[in-house]
Specification:
The structure holds two protein chains of two kinds. By secondary structure, chain A is mostly helical. Helices cover about 60% and strands about 0% of the residues of chain A. In chain A, about 50% of the residues are buried. By secondary structure, chain B is an alpha/beta fold. Helix content of chain B is about 30%, strand content about 20%. In chain B, the strands form four sheets. Chain B has a six-stranded mixed sheet with strand order 1-14-13-17-15-16. In chain B, a hairpin with an 8-residue loop joins strand 5 and strand 6. In chain B, helix 3 packs parallel to helix 5, helix 4 packs across helix 5 and helix 4 packs across helix 7. The interface between A and B is large, with 36 and 66 residues.
């Protein structure tokens, strides 16, 4: 040793990095991915592959040739966006539609704002909502789950989601649905909506690894449960109940993986609760009174826009300044 | 529930590798260089000149103001020169160079092993002794001890807190003295508590040091049984969390009171002293030995076990000499830290010498200490979660980079205690504390000019 390294304190650093955090999010999504591939087969694998590959490729090309910034592909955030986008699409989505979704997610929602850390809206949700509005036929053509081998059957057995059925036919139409089916992935919907248990496993993993705090997720779920509980108690003939609303649509997927996105959610715990309650309320308002059967994506996007305001109001409690 | 401070904090690996290494006495080198700036406040004024003969414990520099301290010779011999020499940071500071001849102590110094348990009655004389013996806080800040022990008029000490937390990873010097000098530390506490008007004293120790908790509790119990003046002293075990040993955090943990922003501990009735300071107070008051020795840890993951040490050193010993005696500097070490890895200073100059507050030579490898490349903030909020002062480092970082002084002050940048939790926690390797430290200095300067 010839020269001494001199730098200001601290001299140690945590092992947690942006990359390790993103890797943990990807690991947390694996149960949901496995379930959706098992139940939708090759079609789902294709959607996942196209989505992840195009998100990563687009991020690489844009940082390298358009922004002339250091390449950020290695931090794995594009992989997270890719998997999330895929879990939000029906397995029957054509590959080129998935690609357009990735262009909007990475190119528009993420990179135009300046890349990771700068985007106001969750890229995967922007991609999904863009597709929902632009290609409604593909996006509402929900496949009913079928075994992995029977790829042909996916096209044959398309049907509406439970929320779609409820929107069209009212509460009576969904009375026959089995909640156990919802828990164990036997319902129609976008890939990631399949199994509540798979998503909850991811949630537990994220909490255990201290990647996220529970405030946002739990306040969304609590708001959805309380809101729908009140309406359902008053008029069970017109409004669907809390268990139905928690297990259907993107509530769980959104509450666990999308609303908790660091970049687009508030920094403080109190802010997180306000954010979560807002998402829960807007979701239920869209479901009960809106034109769309599902409101989770819209709710998250609207609350994303409010995050800077929430951050401005909610500061952490300072020591000795009560 | 075990007590700890209420906001933030982190849990780095405690790495107390050298905890079982008994305290060894370092042999005196042939020459020492004693700095006159070993304490917080004005550097002391040298009162010896080249050619003077000095004894161990003799005053060689006098305080140059209210916040300043006496400096004593740690060896006997001849003063060779008085002049500037580089300290560990590479800054020029006046040092007194002494050629060592023999080991002749000043008169009155009690070098026996006898433990004096009887606490002197005269508080004024006790305080004078603490001051004359150059006792300063040994927890890091080296604030003159007698100043803290004289609460300003109108304020009253309600609790003396002895800091035995040693929350910095790697350091084990406080741990060793709590095991090997437990009684002396308790006697020091009893002396300080008497000077403060008889308030209770609490010795706070983190739960990861059960042997120290046991040793200190036994020492307290035995002294309470056999001598007078030891009532109201107790040991409190604290949950392990960094920075528990921070003054404000320790008061919060022990008393459940938060010192107001800009306020002093005494404003909530607290006086905090490190366990090593308590030992120095004992030596000064009971044994007439001025503060010329302390214990330091020689450690690091890249250091073989047989080269790990806890050394009792004398002030003025060159660090390069100590490193050599300890078995040499390991090949893999790229950085040597004086103090803990969280708040210690990286040594720029190994020819610098030990001072009263020296606490370690910590060898760190490139893999451990070289920072990663800074990437974009992902707004994870881990810095805010870690900050023990409840600040929002991500926000202060943005304001500081844009020179927004009013916003920095509104968001309490001046409250930062520079513990390093934010920078430690940042997954994007943003140099949060580096930037906040500079901004804090600027804001404090602005606040001062306003007054």
């Amino acid at each position: 040793m010839n020269k001494l390294l001199v730098s200001p304190s601290p001299h140690l650093h945590t092992r947690t990095s942006t990359k390790s955090l993103m890797r943990d999010v990807v690991i947390a999504m694996i149960p949901a991915v496995i379930v959706s591939v098992l139940f939708y087969g090759w079609a789902e694998l294709l959607v996942l592959g196209v989505s992840v590959a195009s998100c990563v490729l687009l991020e690489y090309l844009i940082t390298k040739y358009l922004l002339n910034k250091p390449c950020t592909v290695c931090d794995m955030s594009a992989v997270v966006t890719g998997v999330l986008l895929a879990l939000n699409l029906p397995a029957t989505t054509p590959w080129w539609v998935v690609f357009i979704g990735a262009v909007v997610a990475i190119g528009v929602a993420k990179m135009t704002f300046g890349g990771l850390g700068q985007n106001l809206f969750n890229p995967a949700i922007v991609g999904r909502v863009f597709l929902l509005i632009s290609f409604p036929t593909y996006m509402t053509n929900w496949a009913k789950p079928n075994g992995f081998i029977s790829t042909a059957a996916v096209d044959a057995f398309t049907g509406a989601t439970p929320l779609g059925i409820a929107k069209e036919g009212g509460v009576a139409a969904v009375e026959g649905l089995d909640y156990m089916d919802m828990l164990f992935c036997n319902i129609g919907g976008s890939a990631g909506e399949l199994s509540a248990l798979a998503i909850l496993a991811g949630f537990v993993y994220l909490l255990a690894r201290r990647v996220i705090k529970p405030y946002i997720t739990l306040s969304i779920l609590a708001t959805v449960a309380v809101f729908s509980g009140i309406f359902w108690a008053v008029n069970p003939a017109e409004f669907t109940g809390p268990v139905f609303n928690l297990l259907t649509g993107g509530v769980l997927l959104g509450a666990v993986f999308m609303a908790t996105d660091y970049v687009t959610s508030p920094m403080s715990n109190v802010g997180g609760i306000i954010f979560g309650v807002g998402i829960g309320l807007i979701t239920m308002l869209v479901r009960y009174f809106g034109a769309y059967p599902e409101g989770m994506s819209f709710a998250i996007l609207i609350m994303n826009a409010v995050v800077p305001l929430i951050n401005k109001w909610c500061h952490s409690k300072k020591f000795g300044r009560a | 529930m075990m007590k700890t401070f209420s906001i933030g904090g982190i849990h780095p690996n405690d790495s107390k590798i050298s905890k079982d290494c008994k305290i060894e006495v370092l042999p005196v080198p042939s020459k020492v260089y004693i700095s006159v700036a070993q304490h917080l406040g004005a550097p002391a004024t040298p009162i010896v000149k080249a050619g003077d003969q000095v004894k161990v414990g003799q005053v060689i520099a006098e305080p140059a103001g209210f916040i300043s301290a006496y400096v004593h010779s740690s060896v006997s011999g001849t003063v060779k020169s008085v002049g500037p020499r580089k300290d560990i940071a590479g800054n020029n500071v006046v040092h007194i160079e002494i050629d060592v001849e023999g080991d002749e102590w000043i008169e009155g110094a009690d070098l026996s092993d006898t433990i004096v348990t009887e606490i002197p009655e005269d508080d004024k004389a006790t305080l004078e002794k603490i001051k004359m013996c150059g006792v300063v806080g040994l927890g890091g800040a080296t604030f003159p001890a007698h100043v803290k022990l004289c609460p300003p008029p109108g304020s009253k000490a309600e609790c003396l807190i002895l800091n035995g937390a040693e929350c910095e990873p790697y350091l084990t010097s406080d741990y060793r003295i709590m095991l090997e000098r437990s009684k002396e530390i308790v006697i020091g506490a009893a002396i300080m508590k008497k000077v403060l008007g008889g308030c209770p004293a609490v010795i706070g120790i983190e739960e990861n040091k059960p042997e120290a908790i046991k040793a200190m509790s036994e020492a307290v119990a035995e002294l309470q049984k056999t001598a007078k003046g030891y009532d109201g002293i107790s040991v409190m075990s604290l949950k392990k969390k960094y920075p528990q040993g921070g003054e404000k955090q320790l008061i919060d943990a022990v008393m459940g009171r938060q010192v107001k922003s800009g306020g002093l501990p005494i404003s909530v009735g607290a006086v905090v002293q490190n366990v090593a300071t308590s030992l120095a107070v004992y030596e000064a008051v009971q044994k007439n030995i001025p503060l010329i020795t302390n214990v330091m840890t020689i450690t690091g993951d890249c250091l073989p076990m047989e080269n790990q040490h806890n050394y009792k050193f004398r002030i003025g010993m060159p660090l390069s000499y100590i490193a050599e005696v300890a078995g040499g500097i390991p090949e893999e070490a790229v950085k040597i830290v004086s103090g803990g890895p969280m708040m210690g200073k990286a040594i720029a100059n190994l020819d610098a010498t030990t001072v009263k507050g020296s606490s370690s030579l910590l060898y760190l490898t490139a893999e451990q200490t070289v920072r990663g490349v800074e990437s974009a903030c992902i707004r994870c909020g881990k810095c805010a979660e870690a900050c023990p002062m409840g600040l929002e480092p991500f926000l202060l970082n943005k304001y500081a980079r844009n020179n927004m002084m009013d916003e920095l002050e509104e968001n309490a940048v001046q409250d930062c205690i520079e513990c390093g939790c934010c920078l430690y926690s940042c997954p994007a390797n943003i140099p949060l504390l580096d930037i906040i430290r500079i901004a804090k200095g600027d804001v404090i300067r602005i606040i001062r000019t306003r007054k």
